[in-house]
Amino acid sequence: MSIADVKKTAEHKMHKTLEALRLDLAKIRTGRAHVGLLDHVQVDYYGSMVPVNTVANITLLDQRTLGVQPWEKAMVGKVEKAIRDSDLGLNPAALGELIRVPMPALTEERRRDLIKVVKHECENARVAIRNLRRDANSTLKDLVKNKECSEDDERRAQDDIQKLTDKNIAEVDKQFAQKESELMAI
After folding, report:
1. Cα dist. 153→4, 69, 89, 142, 156 in Å?
2. Which segments does the entry list as coiled coil (predicted)?
3. What is the pLDDT of residues 118-160, one digit of tens each?
């Protein structure tokens, strides 16, 4: 493994960590509806648990309401129950074949709780990025020990990895600030 490989691997893994954070933050709901909100809700489909979006069409009816239309009439009750039983705190209402899922308004206390959750997710991402930096630096030390690169090259590579780490942690902080302002907006 060369220094370039170590840098490239670290950069790739840090990018994946940022993507995972972006997806996790998208699941934390604000007062607005978005179709990705129900992605992790599982429904019983003839004995196997599948995501809601595989058995129903999810649309945005307005800013604060989702429309869920199961492809089979028999699934309406099951989908409605799955959404109600999820940890999202939603109260769906079936109107014939369409299930309306209104987004309740967020209270100030609930907003603060959500910000704590966001802060925790961001801190986990920072820790993951720092762990990737540590792993890359230990790999560089192994390269020096095995005489595959010089100490000067290792030092330069460590500086590059530190810059990459700082850049990614700044991106985490930016995502946190963005989500925090989104949650506090009324």
Report:
1. 11, 59, 54, 13, 5
2. 115-167
3. 898 899 999 999 999 999 999 999 988 988 888 899 899 999 9
Quote the CA–CA distance of 27 and 160 in Å, as a whole number. Answer: 33
Query: What pTM did the predictor assign?
Result: 0.68
Which domains does the chain carry?
3-27+107-184 (1.10.132.20), 35-102 (3.30.1360.40)
pLDDT digits (tens, 9 = 90+) for 71-89: 888 888 888 888 888 767 7
- Per DSSP, the residues of 146-178 read TTSS-HHHHHHHHHHHHHHHHHHHHHHHHHHHH
